[in-house]
Amino acid sequence: MNALMTQVRRLTLFETLLLAGLLLLAAFLALPIVFIVNHAFKPYNEMFQFPPTFLVREPTLSNFYDLFLRSSASIVPFSRYLFNSLIVSAATLAAVIVSSSMAAYVLSKYRFSLKKAVMAMIMLSLMFAPETVAIPRYLIISWLNINNTYFGHVLPFIASPVAVFLMKQFVDQIPNELVEAAKVEGASEVRIFLRIVMPLAMPALATIAIITFQSVWSDGQSSTLFMQDETMKTLPYYIMTLTSGVNAVAGQGMAAAAGLLMFLPNLVIFLFAQKRIMETMVHSGVK
Amino acid sequence: MASVSFRHVFKTYRSEKKPSVDDFNLEIADGEFLVLVGPSGCGKTTTLRMLSGLEDISDGEIYIGDRYINYVSPKDRDIAMVFQNYALYPNLTVYENMALGLKLRKTAKHEIDMRVKKAARILEITNYLDKKPGQLSGGQKQRVALGRAIVREPKVFLMDEPLSNLDAKLRAQTRAELIRLHRELGTTTVYVTHDQTEAMTMGTRIVVMKDGVIQQADTPQRIYRHPANLFVAGFIGSPAMNFIEGGIAESEGRMYFNNKRLRLRIPESFYPSLREAPSLRSVVLGIRPEHIVSDPAWLQHFDNKVSALIDIKELMGADTYLYLNVGETNLVARVDDAEDGFELKSAVEVGFQMEKAHFFDAATGANLSADSLRGQP
C-alpha cells in the first residue's frame, strides 16, 4: 500500500491528465462489451423499452433458457449448430496455422525462382473482398463435390493471405544464420521448422490464430452458400435466422443471448494472447 | 582434423555475369589457421559458405581430407561454423545450444554432458549454462557460439567474422583467446575477416582476396614484407603503405626513381629484377610509414632525403604518425613519440629506406622487386 501511494504521488500533472484521459477512452471503448453482456440478461420488456436502457435492471436467464431449450424443439437443435461451429473453427485454425506457417517459412527463408511472383499473388489476393469471390468459391466447392461437408467450410479459409503475410513478416525477422547454424549442426528441414522457427514465431502464430478464429467463428457465408443441409450449418447462420422474418421481434432475446455466447470465445482468446499479438503487430509494422 | 582443398572453384550467381569467386585454388594443411581477408564483396564469405555447404558450388571441386564434398550436405561435412551475429537459438539455454549438434547426432547423453562441460570450462562459461542467450552480453554470446562449435569436435572450424560485433577491447581479448584455443585444439580453421589486424595476428597463413580472385596466399610476415601487388601492399598494414608514382631511369649504370619532385637512388640489390621488368617508364614506389625516417642521427647516412611539410600529426601513444606533403604527394611516416618537436606546417627532412621499398608496375600492379613472390596465385 505504501509503495503504491509513493508511486501515485510521483506522477506529474501531465501524467495524471494523460492517465485520466486514457482511462476515459478505455471506458468508452469498453461500452459495447458492457452492452453485450447486459443485453443478454434483459427480460423482454426491458429490451424494447423506450428510451432504451443501457444497463440491465432485472437480470434474467430466460434468453439463454429460450436459446438452449425452446429452440431445441425445432428440427435442428442449437447444440448441433454449436457443435458444427466448434468443429469448423478448430479444423480451420489447425489448417491455417499449418499451411500459412509453412508457406511463410519457405517464402521467407528459401531462394527459388518465381518467389516474387508468388508473393505478389498473395498480396494481390489481399485486395479482394470475400463477397467478390463468393461465386468462384461456390463453383469450386461444388466442382470438388464437398457441399454439405465440414471440409467445405474449412477449405475457403485455408488460403489466408493475411496469415501468410503476417507470418512471413515475422519469420523475416528471424536471422538466416539461425537456420544456417542449425543446418550445419545437423538438423533436418522439418526439425529446423518445428524446433527453431516455430518457437520463435509463437507471437505471430497466436496472432493468426486469433484473427482466423474471429473470422471463422463469425462467418455465416459458407453456411449460406455451400451448405444446403441444415444439420451442417454453423452458429452464426443460426443467429441470423433467429431475428429474420417472422422472428424479428420474438427472436431478439435469444439473439442477444447468442450474441454474448458468440463474443465470449473471442474475448477469452484475446485476453490470453494479447501480449503476443502486440509483439506481432509491432514486428510486422502493422497497426 | 583434416586438410581442405579448393580446386578451380567458381561461384557465379544467377543474376550476375561476373563470378563472385573466380578460379579459387588453395590447399589448406591440417591444423592450419587460415584467414581469408579482403574488402567487402571480395568473395571471402562466399568461399567460406561454399566450404560449409550453405552455398552451391558453380564449378570446381572442394575436398575435406580426401573426401569430395561438392554434393555433401552441410551436416555431413563434419564442420562447425561460428557466425558474426552468434546465431544462438534464443529459446534454448546455453547448455542446450551447445548440446544440440551432438543430440542431433545421437551422441550418448553422458558423452554430451562431458563434452559440453569441458568446452564450458575451456571458455569459462560454466556459470551461464542454465541461462538463455538473451541474458548474456555480446562477448559471452560469442563464447557460447564458439563452445557450440568446439563440442562437436569437427574436422574444420569455419568462422565468419566472429569478432565484428564485439567492441574493440573485447575483440582484442577474444582474438587472443581464439589463438590460444587453436593452439590447444589444433583444429583446421578457416577464418573470414575484413580486418587486416585480425588477419595479421591470428593467421598462420593469410589469403588476400579481391573481386573473387586470390591476390596472395602466404604467411602474415611474408605478405607484409613482400606483397605480391599494389592491392595487397595497400590493404595490409596500418597506416597503409605510401605510394608514389613515377618512373625508373638508368644513368651511368645507376638506377633512379624519378618524378617531378623526387630523385631517389635505388639500391643495387633491386637491379637484376628491375632489369627484367617489361617497362620501367611508369612505376609506383611503395614504402611503408616506418621506413620513412626523420631521426637526424640516422639521416646523415641516407642518400635519399627530401624536405616535406607536416600537414597533420597523430599521437598514437608509442608512435606518432606524421602526414607529410611533398609537392602533390602525400606521405605518412611513423616516428617515435620520443622525437618531439614536429611543428605543424613546418618543414622536416625525411629519408627513405630504399632497401625496404617496393616497385610496382603502374599498369598491372605487379610487384617488380626481386624478393616479392611473383608467380604465386
TrEMBL record, chain A:
Q: Where are the transmembrane segments?
A: 12-37, 81-107, 119-144, 150-171, 192-217, 254-273
Membrane topology recorded in Swiss-Prot or TrEMBL: Multi-pass membrane protein
PROSITE patterns, from UniProt?
A: ABC_TM1
Q: Which InterPro entries match?
A: MetI-like, MetI-like_sf
Q: Give start and end of each ABC transmembrane type-1 domain.
A: 82-273
Q: Where in the cell is it found?
A: Cell membrane
- Superkingdom of source: Bacteria
- Could you list this entry's UniProt keywords, alphabetically sorted: Cell membrane, Membrane, Transmembrane, Transmembrane helix, Transport
Q: Which GO terms describe its cellular component?
A: plasma membrane
What SUPFAM superfamilies is this protein classified in? MetI-like (SSF161098)
Q: Name one GO biological process term.
A: transmembrane transport
Family stated for the protein in its record: Belongs to the binding-protein-dependent transport system permease family.
Q: Which PANTHER family match?
A: ABC TRANSPORTER PERMEASE PROTEIN MG189-RELATED-RELATED, BINDING-PROTEIN-DEPENDENT TRANSPORT SYSTEMS INNER MEMBRANE COMPONENT
According to UniProt, the name of this protein is ABC transporter permease subunit
Automatic annotation (TrEMBL), chain B:
Tell me what organism the protein belongs to.
Paenibacillus sacheonensis
The ABC transporter domain extends over 4-236
Give the matching NCBIfam families: PRK11650.1 (NF008653)
In terms of domain of life, where is this protein from? Bacteria
Sorted alphabetically, the keyword list is: ATP-binding, Nucleotide-binding, Transport
- Keyword Transport part of the UniProt annotation: yes
Q: Which SUPFAM superfamilies match?
A: MOP-like (SSF50331), P-loop containing nucleoside triphosphate hydrolases (SSF52540)
Q: Which is a GO BP term held by this UniProt record?
A: carbohydrate transport
- What InterPro entries does this protein map onto? AAA+_ATPase (IPR003593), ABC_transporter-like_ATP-bd (IPR003439), ABC_transporter-like_CS (IPR017871), ABC_transpr_MalK-like (IPR015855), ABC_transpr_MalK/UgpC-like (IPR047641), Mo/tungstate-bd_C_term_dom (IPR008995), NA-bd_OB-fold (IPR012340), OB_MalK-like (IPR040582)
Q: What name goes with this protein?
A: sn-glycerol-3-phosphate ABC transporter ATP-binding protein UgpC
Instruction: Show the PROSITE patterns listed in the entry.
Output: ABC_TRANSPORTER_1, ABC_TRANSPORTER_2
Name the Gene Ontology molecular function terms of this record. ABC-type transporter activity; ATP binding; ATP hydrolysis activity
**One cellular-component annotation, GO:** ATP-binding cassette (ABC) transporter complex, substrate-binding subunit-containing
Task: Kindly indicate whether the keyword ATP-binding belongs to this entry.
Answer: yes
